[in-house]
């Protein structure tokens, strides 16, 4: 759009505004200020900028950074000098973002998979306590059979006994505690009475039957003790304590050959028992005789 100033030629609108603005701000100083351009802008335009549609002004300094954007004569967008007109060029920032995108996607996928694995693990059904107990016993018996040092083997044996003494029932644990305390105080009738209640309450608890067998043995009830040991063997065939008790009862009954078999079976489960080894060697001599 063109406008005519009084006494002047027709000028483009933006030039009219420039002249009016210059006259309003500094009508006299604009002509005398060093560095002012030919249109009278005080101090010139900012570094790297040029008038819209101005192709005649001085070029910006060569060491100046490229302007953030520019417009051509027809008003179209022009990129900064030295950069491609394509905003998605691989030399621009968007190109770098596109190159980094695969790595970002891979990291995101890895995080999603890790969260999914954690959720799956958290929601997975937990093993039953009986299964965990059996797994722990299996591992301990494996070490017990391989241990050659008596002290090391004793540690495994004590750990096994500790598991045998555990029950999921608070009531059963309390009865077991009172029964063992009574037996330690040699109050065998009270201990036996408590253990009778315990095997009725927890008939699948092998250690309850084993403790009652021990109390019956101390009360000179060998037949009752053997009957309880049979129950222990059905529930826990690897119970080396019950096997040794059975061997002692058989040996006292004069059944040395059967006692030797039971002792050897106990040694297979718990081999690092010096006292049992000595007993087996002596009993072997009695059963099999000395070599000539």
Question: What does this entry show, briefly?
Answer:
With 292 residues, this protein is mainly α. Helices cover 61% and strands 3% of the residues.
The helix fraction, in percent, is: 55-70%
Secondary-structure element pattern, one letter each: EEHHEEHHHHHHHHHH
The span between the termini is: 136 Å
What is the overall pLDDT average?
77
**Widest sheet: strand ordering:** 1-2
Keywords: Repeat, Signal, TPR repeat
Region (Disordered): 31-113
Signal peptide: 1-28
TPR repeats: 240-273
Q: What would you note in describing this structure?
A:
- This protein has 292 residues and is mainly α.
- It has helices at 13-25, 29-32, 93-123, 129-146, 150-164, 170-184, 188-201, 206-218, 222-235, 240-252, 256-269, 274-288; strands at 2-4, 10-12, 70-71, 77-78.
- Strands 1-2 form a two-stranded antiparallel ribbon. Strands 3-4 form a two-stranded antiparallel ribbon.
- The chain starts with a strand and ends with a helix.
- Residues 1-41 and 45-57 have low confidence and may be disordered.
Draw up the topology in text.
Layout: E1 2-4, E2 10-12, H1 13-25, H2 29-32, E3 70-71, E4 77-78, H3 93-123, H4 129-146, H5 150-164, H6 170-184, H7 188-201, H8 206-218, H9 222-235, H10 240-252, H11 256-269, H12 274-288
Antiparallel strand pairs: 1-2, 3-4
Protein name: Tetratricopeptide repeat protein
Biased composition (Pro residues): 58-69
Biased composition (Polar residues): 83-94
Key attributes of the depicted protein:
292 residues; mainly alpha; two-stranded antiparallel sheet; disordered N terminus; Tetratricopeptide repeat protein; TPR_rpt; TPR repeat; repeat; signal
């Amino acid at each position: 759009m063109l406008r005519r100033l009084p006494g002047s030629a027709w000028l483009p609108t933006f030039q009219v505004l420039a002249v009016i603005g210059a006259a309003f701000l500094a009508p006299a100083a604009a002509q005398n200020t060093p560095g002012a351009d030919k249109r009278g802008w005080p101090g010139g335009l900012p570094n790297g900028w040029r008038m819209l549609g101005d192709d005649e002004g001085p070029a910006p300094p060569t060491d100046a950074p490229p302007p953030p954007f520019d417009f051509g004569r027809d008003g179209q967008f022009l990129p900064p000098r030295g950069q491609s007109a394509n905003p998605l060029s691989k030399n621009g920032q968007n190109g770098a973002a596109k190159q980094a995108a695969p790595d970002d996607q891979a990291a995101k996928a890895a995080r999603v998979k890790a969260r999914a694995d954690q959720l799956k693990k958290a929601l997975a059904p937990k093993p039953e306590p009986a299964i965990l107990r059996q797994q722990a016993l299996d591992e301990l018996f494996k070490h017990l059979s391989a241990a050659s040092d008596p002290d090391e083997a004793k540690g495994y044996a004590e750990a096994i006994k500790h598991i045998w003494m555990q029950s999921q029932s608070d009531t059963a644990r309390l009865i077991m505690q009172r029964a063992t305390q009574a037996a330690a105080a040699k109050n065998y009738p009270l201990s036996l009475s408590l253990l009778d209640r315990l095997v009725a309450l927890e008939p699948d608890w092998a250690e309850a039957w084993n403790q009652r067998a021990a109390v019956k043995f101390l009360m000179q009830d060998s037949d009752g003790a053997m009957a309880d040991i049979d129950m222990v063997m059905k529930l826990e065939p690897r119970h080396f304590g019950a096997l040794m008790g059975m061997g002692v009862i058989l040996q006292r009954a004069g059944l040395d050959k059967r006692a030797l078999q039971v002792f050897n079976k106990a040694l297979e489960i718990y081999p690092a028992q010096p006292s049992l080894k000595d007993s087996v060697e002596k009993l072997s001599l009695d059963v099999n005789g000395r070599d000539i």
